[in-house]
Amino acid sequence: MDYKKKDLLTYSSANDFLCSVAPKEVNEKVISRYLNAPNRIKKNAKLNEFFKRFISSAQNANMKRRVIGGAIGGIDHLSPVLLGFNPKAVNKKYGMDNRKLLKDIQTKLKPTGKIRKSSRSLWPQYCHTALSVAKFLSQFDDGKRFTNWLNVFYRDELTLPALPLILAEEIHGIGFALACDFLKELGYIKYGKPDVQVNRIFKSLGLVELPASDYSVLKAINRLAKNAGVTSYDVDKLFWLIGSGDFYLDRASIGKNGKIGSNGEKFIKHMKAKYKTLRAD
Question: Phi, psi (5° rounding) for residue 256?
Answer without folding.
Answer: -100, 100
